[in-house]
Amino acid sequence: MNKSSRSVTVVIPARYGSSRFPGKPLIELNGKPMIQHVYERATACGAVSDVLVATDDERIKQAVERFGGRVVMVTGDYRTGTDRVAAVARMFAGDYFLDLQGDEIPLNPELLTDLIEPFLESGAGMGTLKRVMDPTEDLLNSAVVKVVTNARGDALYFSRAPIPFVRGDDSGQQVIGGLHYIHLGLYMYTKETLLRFAALPTSRLEDAEKLEQLRALDHGIRIRVWETKHASLRVDRPEDVPDVAERLQQFEAVKRELQNSGVFFKS
């Protein structure tokens, strides 16, 4: 891990209770709980100084300790994962904090690097990632969050709706390369901006879309967005589990094949 003067702490908020999928961090994917897949990829990133899981549940705490991970109990009524990360930032020293959602599995640790390295050079207070939407993605799927940015790369809006709307597209579902982007579930903050964010009241936009990043936009916090080409897997509902497990298995098989053939593969 990177031990430079600019420390980057990855915090993975993991809550047991969920209206759509209780116990999601502990679901097994190819012999490991999902939280372990996320944790191991974060610790493999060379740009990261420290990784810890923030949870309010003893079952998750024990699961993380079983695989040797660092975990901190953060109890209380927190509105979002980012508010839980802010609680961790109040407990620990650190310059920068990266909020990595516990259901967003980076297939390659370099996905985190794609956010960390430009963020550290940008002077921004808050940043995140986008990826070109795959043509097979359902543009109308409300579980897939979309983002629209300006020419500088600052976020204009995030939505569960298909944005931008393309007038003249009769199907209303056609994905256009370079226009439609998926927003990924990770955010990077300076400590100052993170604590400022957590002190703000919930905004009407945030409450309507159930997207915490809209609180920042609503209160004038600029969010810089960078593009990544690295893949990640997301589990939103129980029916996602078999497909995610299969894709993880395929990825690991390809990685082993490359390593056996002498090709260096960082993960």
What does this structure look like?
The protein is built from eight helices and 13 strands. It is of the alpha/beta class and 267 residues long. Strands 5-4-1-6-11-8-12 form a seven-stranded mixed sheet, with helices on both faces. A two-stranded antiparallel sheet has the order 2-3. Helix 3 packs across helix 5 (191-199). 37% of the residues are buried.
Tell me about the largest β-sheet: 7 strands, mixed
Question: What is the percent of helical residues?
Answer: 25-40%
> Terminal Cα separation, in Å?
13 Å
**From the alpha-carbon coordinates, what is the Rg to the nearest angstrom?**
18 Å
Shape: globular
**What is the structural class?**
alpha/beta
The number of E-state strands comes to 13
Low-pLDDT stretches: none
pLDDT average, as an integer?
90
Order of neighbouring strands in the sheet with most strands: 5-4-1-6-11-8-12
Estimate what percentage of residues fall within beta strands.
15-25%
- Helix tally equals 8
The SSE string, one letter per element, is: EEEHEHEHEEHEEEEHHHEEH
Quick overview:
With 267 residues, this protein is of the alpha/beta class.
Topology at a glance:
Elements: E1 8-14, E2 28-29, E3 32-33, H1 34-43, E4 50-55, H2 58-66, E5 71-73, H3 81-91, E6 96-100, E7 104-106, H4 110-122, E8 126-132, E9 146-149, E10 155-159, E11 181-190, H5 191-199, H6 204-209, H7 213-218, E12 224-227, E13 232-234, H8 241-260
Relevant terms:
267 residues; alpha/beta; 7-stranded mixed β-sheet; 8 helices; 31% helix; 23% strand
